[in-house]
Amino acid sequence: FWLGAVQYDFTKKTFVRGAVYLGDNRFDAARGQNYPAFIDLDLVHKFGSRDQWTYYLEYTYGWQRDVPGIGQADWYSFVNYLTYAWTDNFS
Hints:
It is a single chain. It is elongated, with a radius of gyration of 17 Å. It is mostly beta strands. Helices cover about 0% and strands about 70% of the residues. The strands form two sheets. The protein has a five-stranded antiparallel sheet, with no helix packed on it.
């Protein structure tokens, strides 16, 4: 399998990150184990007077073959997060 990530910083407050997990991408019926593959992309922007607010936009796409009763399975999601950092350790 292959696992990797790359990040590009547009500014000190905005960056995009991509991660990928590629492997066998199949369901192993003999072992009853799942081996999906997926790609994840994140756009992150910090704002506020002390960068206490952070916005995340995340996109995930995954796929897997040999799924019992289905064959090839594909899925995707979009998620938005908005967080506030109360302290360096709590948000």
